[in-house]
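Morning run. Coffee first, then this:
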Amino acid sequence: MAEVKEKMVKIRLPLTKYEKDDVFVRVNQRTWLIKRGVEVEVPECVVEVLNHAEEQKLAGIEFQEKAQKKTD
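And here it is:
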C-alpha cells in the first residue's frame, strides 16, 4: 500500500515584542515545535490548527471587550 504524501506549506510565525516563544502544535499523535521568525515547512494540517487557534484568540478578545463595555 502506497503512503499518501501530505501537502507541505511554508510558513513563518511572526516574532514580536510580546510573542517570542516557539509554538507547539499537536495533530493526532504527531508534534511540531515551530520557531518564530524562521520560515519552516509544515503539513497543511498544522496550518489549519494554527489558523483555528488564531480565530479562537480573536474571539476571546472580542468577548472580553464586550464584557468590559457592559461593566463600564
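The helical segments are 44-71. Good start to the day.
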